[in-house]
Design brief:
The chain has 573 residues and is an all-alpha fold. The protein has one domain: Amino acid/polyamine transporter I (Up-down Bundle), CATH 1.20.1740. 61% of the residues lie in helices and 2% in strands. The chain is built from 21 helices and four strands. It has helices spanning 17-25, 92-102, 110-118, 121-148, 155-163, 165-196, 207-227, 229-259, 268-271, 280-291, 310-339, 342-347, 351-359, 366-395, 414-428, 433-461, 474-493, 495-506, 508-517, 523-540, 549-553, and strands at 30-32, 38-40, 406-407, 542-543. A two-stranded antiparallel sheet has the order 1-2. It has a two-stranded antiparallel ribbon with strand order 3-4. Helix 8 crosses helix 11. The longest helix is centred in the N-terminal third of the chain and has 32 residues, at 165-196. The two termini are 38 Å apart. 52% of the residues are buried.
């Protein structure tokens, strides 16, 4: 595929979209300018430059959804993912990719929070099993949505299709401002704790040292992602092995301990001995802590259009991956209790390090190194993904246009990366790890519940819609009942944390109407935004990507595009 004249080599984008949209719609008199307003065709304005030195005019946001390249494994702004030579879609990779996407750094963070709010070993293990069951229910509901609305983009695509543009924007807004930055902050702080704990073996590492190391790691990986997509993806591939090594070691040693008779804490008489009586609110918070480790279960819905026969393979991926993840998480916690008492686990700032020190002897250093490698890769993955989400949201007109630009030589979305890094750094300063987990898990479940509520709304509004997968109504109803319980009692237990999250989401309402819905903005607003965009371009040395008509059809970087040029009607039965 040949890039157009003046395009940055390897940074093919989407310059001719508007001309094609005009041909399809009859070439209306109005076009959307770079500042988000509608202007008469033929008028000239100073606009931010594209790679070819011309103004880029994005299409209206309602025509498209952020696509699957905003998720891990889909490079989007920085370069094309290598295609299958035969042009076949990914099959077994996605079935097992769900497993790898769920299992992450959360299992090294959440056990302490789950145990703290559960009040006993037995109830903590029950919370982990229940978390797997609720995740399976949610996954089945998402499977029906994934084949009924066959658009990549996951929650954002479904909420926008069912509830409209405002609801979709609020979901994007919460992801950019809350979900990704908070998750990044939690994983960064976990990285610093596991690195520093061996240095401070008899006490908790100083908070200042932990935050400084967290920010240093975050800034280093921001620089790596800004410098080269290849470096970022190689880091992800290399450091993924860290979590697998750590979990295999923990579970293996745990089984040895169990068969040697070291399971006093797991005997029923001890396991259900409560050192505190947990309230319903405590149980809700325990589940929020555990649910952080299950994040990523909706990964396949972001790549629905790349799946071969999703009617068969979505349920298969769910029935294979979710039970395996639940098994791994439950037995990781069982292994912890073969070596530590509940009090020792609660007093530990890095549970896996304490486990290694008690059982691995000379090789105890393997555990903090493995977990540090895992969390380092997790930071890189979240940073990579969140920047692509900002990039796609900006390209569709939902976020400032500067975030849709890439470096002229490196082809990386530097403005989006800087925004993600800055938001994460701010969040690191305002809360501890376990408060932040409650914060992000509450917002995650709020979004999951709204999406699954959309399944019931779609059943009511469009009963004749073609649904290759149709779950029993008891499944979404059961999920929503649990969802309502979780949100209500979490709000009662942590009103400040949950309330701040809701307020931040609601701030997106005026932003949507002022920045997206209001099209006839005064010229002074255009001049201000365009001057700020130009300043950002000069600072970051970035431009809009540009490419050919064929590349628009195949996605911005030569990938199959999940974003239709016009909204296609959904199939009916």
């Amino acid at each position: 595929m040949r890039p157009s004249v003046g395009a940055v080599p390897g940074c093919e984008g989407r310059e001719r979209t508007d001309r094609r949209a005009d041909r399809q719609t009859g070439g209306g008199p109005d076009r959307r300018g770079s500042a988000g307003s509608w202007e008469k065709a033929g008028q000239r304005h100073d606009r931010p430059y594209t790679a070819a030195g011309r103004a880029r005019e994005p299409r209206p946001y309602a025509l498209a959804f952020p696509g699957s390249w905003t998720r891990p494994g889909h490079l989007g702004a920085g370069g094309a993912q290598e295609r299958d030579r035969a042009g076949e879609r990914l099959h077994h990779h996605h079935r097992w990719g769900l497993l790898g996407n769920i299992i992450g750094s959360g299992i090294f963070i959440s056990p302490k929070g789950v145990l703290e709010h559960s009040g006993s070993v037995g109830l903590a293990l029950f919370v982990w099993v229940l978390g797997g069951g609720v995740t399976a229910l949610g996954s089945l509901c998402y499977a029906e949505l994934g084949v009924a609305i066959p658009k990549s983009g996951g929650d954002y695509a479904y909420v926008t299709e069912i509830f409209g543009g405002l609801a979709g924007f609020l979901l994007l807004w919460s992801a950019v401002l809350i979900m990704y930055p908070t998750s990044l902050a939690v994983i960064s702080m976990t990285f610093s704790n596991y690195v520093l704990q061996p240095v401070f073996p008899n006490c908790i590492p100083p908070a200042t040292a932990s935050r400084v190391l967290s920010m240093a790691c975050l800034m280093l990986l921001t620089w790596v992602n800004s410098s080269s997509v290849r470096w970022a993806t190689r880091i992800q591939d290399i450091f993924t092995g860290g979590k697998l090594l750590a979990l295999a070691l923990i579970i293996g040693v745990g089984f040895v301990q169990f068969f040697q008779g070291h399971f006093e804490e797991l005997r029923p008489t001890n396991a259900f001995t409560f050192w505190m009586t947990p309230s319903v609110g405590h149980l809700a918070l325990a589940f929020l802590q555990g649910s952080f480790a299950f994040s990523g279960w909706n990964f396949l819905n972001y790549v629905t259009e790349e799946l071969v026969d999703p009617r068969k393979n979505l349920p298969r991926a769910i029935f294979i991956s979710i039970p395996l993840v639940t098994f791994v998480y439950t037995f990781t916690n069982v292994a912890y209790f073969t070596a530590m008492s509940p009090q020792e686990l609660l007093s530990s700032n890095a549970v896996a390090v304490t486990f290694g020190e008690k059982l691995l002897g000379y090789f105890a250093w393997v555990m903090p190194v493995s977990v540090a490698l895992s969390t380092f890769g997790g930071i890189n993955g979240y940073l990579f993904t969140s920047s692509r989400l900002c990039f796609s949201g900006a390209r569709e007109g939902h976020l400032p246009s500067l975030l849709a630009m890439i470096h002229v030589r490196r082809c990386t979305p530097i403005p989006a990366l800087l925004v993600c890094c800055g938001a994460t750094a701010v969040i690191m300063l305002v809360g501890d790890t376990y408060t932040l987990i409650n914060y992000v898990s509450f917002i995650n479940y709020l979004c999951y519940g709204v999406t699954i509520l959309g399944l019931l709304v779609l059943r009511w509004r469009r009963p004749a819609l073609h649904r290759p997968i149709k779950v029993n109504l008891l499944i979404p109803v059961a999920y929503l009942v649990f969802w309502a319980f979780l949100l209500v009692f979490s709000f009662i237990s942590e009103p400040m944390v949950c309330g701040v999250g809701v307020i931040i989401i609601l701030t997106g309402v005026p932003i949507f109407f002022l920045g997206v819905f209001w099209r006839s903005k005064p010229k002074c607003v255009h001049r201000l935004t365009e001057s700020m965009t130009r300043w950002g371009q000069e600072l970051c040395f970035v431009v809009y990507p540009q490419g050919s008509l064929e590349e628009e059809e195949n996605g911005p970087m030569g990938q199959p595009s999940p974003m239709p040029i016009t909204d296609k009607p959904l199939k009916t039965q």
